[in-house]
Amino acid sequence: MKRLMMLASLAALSYTTAASAVPSLRCNGRIIRVGVPAAYVLSECGDPDNQVLQDTTARVGNVNGHSRIVGLALSEQWIYDRGWGRFPAVLIFLDGTLKRIDFLPYRSDKVARAD
C-alpha cells in the first residue's frame, strides 16, 4: 500500500511540474522567453516567416470580475518555420512585448491531400 501511495504522489508531482513549465524558444543558442521585447527576438531569431499586425482593445479587469476598455494595443503574431522535424513557433506580442509562445502541431507548408 505504501508503494502504491508513493507512486501516486510521484505521478502527481511530475504532472504538476510539467504543467507549470513555461514554453521557450531557442534561437542561435539563446533562449527566448515570455516578457522580452520584440526587438530582442528580432535580433536573435531574425525576420519571421509570417507576420500579422492588428489593433486590439486593451482592457483592465477589477476585483468584481468586470473589465473596462482603456485604449488600443498593437497585437503582433510572428510565425517562425524552424526547419525539418521541428514544429513552427508562433510568438504573440502585445505592444512590443512577447506575451505567449505556442507551437503549431503541424507543418504549415504541408497540405492534406485527398486520394
Q: How would you portray this structure in words?
A:
With 115 residues, the chain is of the alpha+beta class. It has a domain at 24-103: 2-Layer Sandwich (Beta-lactamase Inhibitory Protein, Chain:B, domain 1). The chain is built from two helices and six strands. A four-stranded antiparallel sheet has the order 3-4-5-6, with no helix packed on it. Strands 1-2 form a two-stranded antiparallel sheet. It is elongated. 8% of the residues are buried.
Q: In one word, what is the shape?
A: elongated
What is the third-level CATH name, the topology of the domain at 24-103?
A: Beta-lactamase Inhibitory Protein, Chain:B, domain 1
What is the makeup of the main sheet?
4 strands, antiparallel
Query: Low-confidence parts, pLDDT < 50 over ≥5 residues?
Result: 111-115
Q: How far is the N terminus from the C terminus?
A: 54 Å
Mean pLDDT: 76
Radius of gyration: 19 Å
Looking at the overall shape, the CATH architecture of the domain at 24-103 is 2-Layer Sandwich
Question: How many individual β-strands?
Answer: 6
Count, helices: 2
Secondary-structure-based class equals: alpha+beta
What's the arrangement of strands in the largest beta sheet?
3-4-5-6
CATH class of the domain at 24-103: Alpha Beta
Portion in helices: 10-25%
- Provide the β-strand percentage band: 35-45%
Features:
single chain; 115 residues; alpha+beta; Beta-lactamase Inhibitory Protein, Chain:B, domain 1; 4-stranded antiparallel beta sheet; two-stranded antiparallel sheet; 2 helices; 6 strands; disordered C terminus
